[in-house]
Structures are given as C-alpha cells and as structure tokens.
Write a structure and sequence with these properties.
Chains A, B: Pfam families: ADH_N_2 (PF16884), ADH_zinc_N (PF00107). Two copies of one chain form a homodimer. The mean pLDDT of chain A is about 95. In chain A, strands 3, 4, 5, 6, 7, 14 and 15 form a seven-stranded mixed β-sheet that branches. Chain A has a six-stranded parallel β-sheet with strand order 10-9-8-11-12-13, sandwiched between helices. A two-stranded antiparallel sheet of chain A has the order 1-2. Chain A is built from ten helices and 15 strands. By secondary structure, chain A is an alpha/beta fold. Chains A and B meet through helix 7 and strand 13 of A and helix 7 and strand 13 of B.
Chain lengths: ~325, ~325
Amino acid sequence: MAETNLQILLRRRPQGAPVAEDFEIVETPVPQPKPGEVLVRAQYLSLDPYMRGRMSDAKSYSAPVAIGAVMEGQTAGEVVASDVPGFAPGDTVLGGFGWQRYSSVAPGRLFKIDPGEAPLSASLGVLGMPGLTAWVGLEDIGQPKPGETVVVSAASGAVGQVVGQIARIRGCKVVGIAGGAKKCEFVTEVLGFDACIDHRGDLDAQLDAACPNGIDVYWENVGGAVQRAVFPRLNDHARMVMCGMIAEYNDTSPAPGPNLMSAVRKRLRIQGFIVSDSGWPRYPQFRTELLGHMASGRLAWREDVVEGLRQAPQAFIGLLKGENFGKLVVKID
Amino acid sequence: MAETNLQILLRRRPQGAPVAEDFEIVETPVPQPKPGEVLVRAQYLSLDPYMRGRMSDAKSYSAPVAIGAVMEGQTAGEVVASDVPGFAPGDTVLGGFGWQRYSSVAPGRLFKIDPGEAPLSASLGVLGMPGLTAWVGLEDIGQPKPGETVVVSAASGAVGQVVGQIARIRGCKVVGIAGGAKKCEFVTEVLGFDACIDHRGDLDAQLDAACPNGIDVYWENVGGAVQRAVFPRLNDHARMVMCGMIAEYNDTSPAPGPNLMSAVRKRLRIQGFIVSDSGWPRYPQFRTELLGHMASGRLAWREDVVEGLRQAPQAFIGLLKGENFGKLVVKID
C-alpha cells in the first residue's frame, strides 16, 4: 500500500454558514488494521445536511465532531484487508467511515451488501441512510393512508425523493416543494409527484392550488417560510414529520415557530426522529422493500456526483445553499 | 310539572374575555319528551375551559354554539320520565345536556351510573370528562414511565389534578404548576405531587430546582409564559400532551410558538387530542380504574361548587381567569 490516506478534518466550528477554512485536508499514512478490524477503502462518501449539526457544539442528539477530528459521514467501499470472519478483501460494505479514503473499523459498524443489486452510490442515497430515513419517518410518524395529501419539502433532495415516491406507491396524492423550475420539473416528470411547488414563488397561492383538500402529512426538511406557509393548511389529525429544518441550520438564533394551539384544535402530531435511533436494525426490511420498488420500475432517483474527496467541503457548503440537484455524493479518488 | 325550565343561552360571540352580557338567562316550559326520549332534570353542570372555544365561530374541532342556542356542557342528573327501555324515573345519568335544568334526549347520549359509587358531582370531574381527558392523554400520548419527570400545568384544575395523580401512581416524579401559594399547597399536600411551581413567581428558577433531570412529559393546559419556560427543558424523546392553552384563549391574535428545530434534535412528540374523538368508548375502563384508585385512598380531588344555574356565566368568566380552585361545577337549583 504505497498509497496515502486522505482525510478531511474539522479545523474549527463555523460561525453561521460554513466556509472552506472551517475544514482541513490532510494526507496521512494508511491505517494498519488492529486485530478484529476490517480495513476499508471508501469509494463514495455521502454528504448530508445533518453534518452541519455535527460541526457545532450546541446540544444535539449526537456528540459534535471534535476539532481536528475527521468529519463524520456514511460511505460505501471495498474491503482491503480483514481480520474478521465473514469479511474478505473485495467485499462491498456500507458504514459510517467519515470523510476519508481509508479506515479500519470493527465489524459492528459494517453492512455487507451485494454490489449487483444496484449501483454502489445508490446505497448512500435511495438505498442508504437518506432512504432509510424516509421509510422510518413514514412508518413511525407519517403513516400516510391512501387518498391523503402528503407534502414533502426539499422534494428533489436525498430524503424527499424517497418520501414522496413511497407515499405515491401507497396511494397518496403527493405534492413536492423544491427550489426552481428545473428541480420542480424533475420532481413531477421523473419522480412522478402529482405536483411540485417552487418555494421561490408565491407559496400560499401555489399551496392553495395544489392542496385544495388541505394537508394530511407534512414532511419537514426545511423550516422557515415553507413551514410558515404549510402549517396553517394542516388538516385535522395531520402528522408533521420533523426530519430537519435546513433553511435555519445556519441561523445563530432560532426564529419563532407556530403557535401550538392548533395542535390541540386539530389534534396534530408533530414529531421528530433521528434515523440512527431505531432505523438500522430495520435496514434489511427497508432494503428489500425498496429493491422491490426498483425492480418494478416504480422508484426513480437522481444523484449529484462530485468527483474527488478534496471537493467535499465546497460541495457540502453548496448543499446547505440548495445548490445540489439530487442526492449529493462524492466519488472518492 | 309546574316547574319551569331554566336555560342559559349564548346571546352573542365574545370579543376577547367573555362578559355577562354575552349570555342570556331565560325561563321556558319544561320540554315534553318525544317518543324514544328520556327527560332528565340536571343536578350538576360542569364548567370547563373548552366552552370558550364553542362560543367563537373560529374554525375548531366542533361546531360553535349558535347564537340564541343553549350553551353546551356535561351534566349529571336524574331521569324524570322515560320512553326508553332501560331508563326509568329515578335513574342517575350523565350526558351533555347543556346549561339548563331540563332536557329531553335520545339514549345514545346518556350514561347510566350507580350513584352509590361516588358523589354525583365527581362524575363531572375526576370520574367525568376531565378525568377521562387526563387518562386518555396519558394513555395515548404522555405514556409516562416509572422514574420519569412529569410536569402538569393548571395542576389544581379539573384535568391537572387527575393527570398528576395517575402519573404519581404509575411511579413518576410529578411537578405541578399552579397560580398562588394556596393552590400550590393543595397540589403538594392534598394531591401528593412531589413539587408545585407558582407561575406567578420566577418560572425558570423554580423549574430548575424542581426538575434537575429535565422534563419527560409535559401536560399542556395553559400555553403562554409557562410553555415558553417549559419547552427548552424537555428531554430527548419527551412527549408534550397538548390538551389546552387557556392563557391564550381570549387572545385575538395568536402569539408565536417555539422554534421546532428542537423537535428534530430531541425527537419530541408534540400532540394534541380531544377526548370526544376516542374517549367515551373507553369510559367504562377508565371509570373502573379510577374507582379502584379511590377505593384504595390514592386519589384525592377538590371541587369548587357554585350554587344556582343563574351563577354559571359569572363562574365561567372567573374560570377563564383562574379564579376557581378545583373542578368547577354548578349545583342546579
């Protein structure tokens, strides 16, 4: 292994929107696997909005990335060396190996997958953590019933794509919200949502037109002005699946939210969840279901592939601005 | 029946806090029961905060009381005449007969109860709709587990009393919030809560002292400043049972609520419910459980009994200002 490891570290905590100087790119020796470990060379890195939270030391559901530590992230790659029965060089694996080329990990954090089932990068998106997030949030909170209206914010993004398509397969009317005509066209033409609203336009008028019967399930990925427009349109017994509020991640002080009296009046259920709490033990069930939808041609997806690990910080900065189009992944060189 | 009926009507919709002139007191003939009806003379009327919502024509979970119609409300009384098998003169019944002395109703809206089980007025409070509200909200949303910290606002009120005592019986640490030293003393000394916070004092300091391990279940009866103080103290996976927000019922425009990003970060479940949605079919189960707690001496309650139906409007106006102390009922003359 003459090759070196390439790692991206958190240099300092961002103030507001992250900038390139918040990251540090280093070359280090390829790690030597300890007994009981598997050495993996990552081929794809997933970039996801939750990573912004890990960069801050504000109280959150997960410890922040330490200053000087490798940025966290899901990866897909190949086993290079293994001291663990059941894992052999050449095996394809998923795991949270971080923003780096090589890592040596214990098997509890590895999923072995069949690379023939789908393109490898899909296992970071539609078949990965974002897809599992969509599936778990719908199973546990959204619980869409046939004929209901489901509104999905960040509809062209990694999670939103899957939320809307699963809801559509389950017989719902699905309305996406995305930024710009190009993304909206993708959401309706490729993903097959019933309608898509451009959040740069008049949200109220577009929601009135697209949701004449109100909203039964709202998948919250963005917060801000979109949340303010959707909230009053929730129907009695509506579920609001709190997955993220990316429009507010860089805010240094929180904006006020909706008055909660309507939660009583309408019997709303507003509930947050984190896929890592209970999602991974259900990954096989999720993967089987989604592979079935793929095989029957009912599941489309789009990726935004950035070439080269050194591009990850800029790609991530763009992700928080909505500059990606589809699930953002980095192909590791 | 030489006696007349006495009825309290909604004369007009209140602007902000209701005033006496919003009601009209009339004497009318005692109704003649139609075939298939039961004529009931009410002995107790329950006054409850939700009635403020019924006086407005704003969109709500239930149709408003029409102008000129009898105010709605739960009552307990005695059957005077019956054209329905299974109901005989002298039977004791519960039902939503409204703010009036006599009513003639179909049996689908009647519960026959054993008057020997508990004082009749208790069937409007701890054993009535408020008690059932407490039980259903804890069963379906709060789901308190032994050792958890449960905070109950309006703790000395009709619902709060029962919420806290059930949670205590289930092994929780229970902290009430009430207005003034007298109510707080009642909450700890009579109801047996572990602590009670006076919302007229420094909420933050008192919550810090009473809830050193944060809050796992918050029973929301009041909204306003109490909600703003409690919300940031909710633990991961906390449940916020949205039962009412009485402090804001007279507001003509809604105040902003909490930023909902913490619903994601902490996986909060914020959920409203209305007891009439699913509560009454479970009334027998609830009543049996509560009668068991009464029999074992583990359930205390306090009523604020107002004498005479003509006093109902003033008593209700006082209820919305927190002037009652215990479950407010009117003894019908």
